[in-house]
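It is worth pausing here to work through a concrete case rather than discussing structure prediction in the abstract. The textbook approach is simple: state the sequence, then state the predicted structure, then interpret. We follow exactly that order.
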Amino acid sequence: MSDRLAAMLPGWGIDIKGAGPLYHRLLVLEKAILSGKLKEGDVLYSERDLAEHLRVSRVTVRKAIDHLVQDGFLVCRRGSGTFVGGSAVHADQPPLCANSLKGNISWRGSDTKVECIERSTSHPAPEEMMTLGLSSDSHVVRITCLRSSVGQPLAIERTCISSEFLPHARTVTSSICNTLADANFRPVRAIQRTFASNIEDPDASLLGVAIGTAGLLTKRVAYLASGRAIEFTRSLFRGDAGGFVSKLTSLEN
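Step two, the predicted structure:
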């Protein structure tokens, strides 16, 4: 069993500054699915086997599995086990990163206006802790933007970055990617997933729609060359926006 797990899940001799061992050992499950080592319908190894191989507690493994179930990578079937889900993404995005504050999304060919409506620093929420590999006593910078076209609000974008990489939200003036690059923390790849989502308050009020209206939620995670997740952006779109185009900018340019 250990040999099979070792072939599927890499070892942990890599020392990446700023990322604790918990982050690395949990991220490998997602990487195994994205790379195709774990395929749709495959049965996940038991919590005990994973905990022993990754050298973490079974409680930690269970929390990681719950996170992957929430994002559609895994499916739990009572009495049968945990399986790789059919909605999981099986390929990484190329080395791209969206310029979150620079008008990278357009609707029906029209330009959009981006307004920063909130900047704050606080402790990370549970999903942010899991995604960015942070502890509960760390701090994150959050930047919330409202996108609109011809006076109509279309989307809310919430970007979260560890204060280790971005100490102050006010340092971002145009592009988060450019700001991180200037600080020598340039992401090299990004993974973005899309979900159907009902829009609830306070987002419904900001977007000018009724509570419960159908919308589209994207979750994008950008990574450094070391493998450390550096940016977590959640974007909520109105379902009646009439279609949009998302433009990603190569980090090599």
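Step three, interpretation. Confidence is low (pLDDT under 50) at residues 12-21, 89-109, 249-253. The two ends are 44 Å apart (CA to CA).
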